[in-house]
Amino acid sequence: MWTRLSQIEFRRESAGRCFLSWLVLLVAFIPNFGCQKLKVSGIQKLISPSNNRDWAPEVATIPFAEISGSQYTLRNIRNCKYLTAEDYVVDYYDRQIQIDQIQSVDFIVVPFNNAPKLAHTMISFGLDDGSYLAVSIEVRKERGEKFNALLGAGRKFELIYVLSDERDVIRLRTKYRESDVYVYPTVASPQQSRAMFADVMTRINKLAVEPEFYNSINNNCTTNLAGHVNKVSPDKITYGWKVLLPGFSAQYAYELGLLDNRIPFEDLTSIALVNDLAAANFEDPEFSQKIRSRRNQIDRHLARQAMRNSTLGGRGDELLRSQLRPRRTLVR
């Protein structure tokens, strides 16, 4: 359990956290802008967020859920068809599900190509029919607007939850943006996955009527996902540098036991990387299942380890660790 900080300690930590956040943003992003002038589009936009602007086509339509008991009618699930990263046909569909169909939730990490310590993070809910429903928390850009991380720490951009087909958000990044995409299985039970799904849908509906500003420090993809996890498992995730630098978020989730940590993190990461599988199964109707086809390697890895332990009398891990210890050389 995490102990509560005293009021003084909390203020000290908050001040240090704010300084660290700005330092990271300056180091990571200022080189990208050089001396170009940062522009702000009007005083009114700085005062209050809005759902009524001339939005970029891919974020022009906001999703929402019609909830009746355990039945969820999901509106505006995005499924863009891409020609390039910038040329695409926007498409949406609706879907009706029962919450009991939710069986799992995966954690998706997409490191930035030129700054892998930073990353975009997403989640995807697995249903009992083998399909998946992705949620990508993003900047809601206006038409022609470019993201600026420094302005993103202020009141420049709105926030949007994109409810999406995996073929949209994953293929966009693996093929057209040429980014590495890691799809990690979490250890969330079906009950926990459903609770998180319900919380995400509640937030989506709230944003549909009460828009919010995106914030690069405290209202972004990773901080929102951490908030949803903490709704299901209170105080599980604390704000720190591994949240501020989402390129480390998978390792942090692994350390917290949110990902399957029965195998080494490096092995889990190799299994989670889906780029080659996404390319090989790009048009496959079972795209989501195919990009997860390596997961049976986790069970094989555990079976081999169990066999080694059985053969060595339960000392397999101990002997392996002893072989990895540095050897001392006797100097006469």
Tell me what the structure shows.
This protein has 332 residues and is of the alpha+beta class. The chain has one domain (51-308). The chain is built from 13 helices and ten strands. The chain has a five-stranded antiparallel sheet, sandwiched between helices. Strand 6 and strand 7 form a beta hairpin. Helix 5 (190-209) crosses helix 6. The longest helix has 27 residues, at 7-33. Mean pLDDT is 85; it is low at 1-23, 25-41 and 323-332.
Describe the strand arrangement of the main beta sheet, using strand numbers: 9-8-7-6-10
The Cα radius of gyration reads 22 Å
- The structure class reads alpha+beta
3D shape: globular
Counting DSSP H or I runs of 4 or more residues, the number of helices is: 13
Kindly state the mean pLDDT as a whole number? 85
The secondary-structure element order is HHEEEEEEEEHEHEHHHHHHHHH
Q: Poorly predicted ranges (pLDDT <50, ≥5 residues)?
A: 1-23, 25-41, 323-332
Instruction: List how many beta strands DSSP finds.
Output: 10
Query: How many structural domains can be distinguished in the coordinates?
Result: 1
Distance between the termini: 51 Å
Percent in strands: 15-25%
* DSSP helix fraction: 40-55%
- Major sheet attributes: 5 strands, antiparallel
List keywords for this structure.
five-stranded antiparallel beta sheet, globular, 13 helices, 20% strand, 332 residues, three-stranded antiparallel beta sheet, 10 strands, single chain, alpha+beta
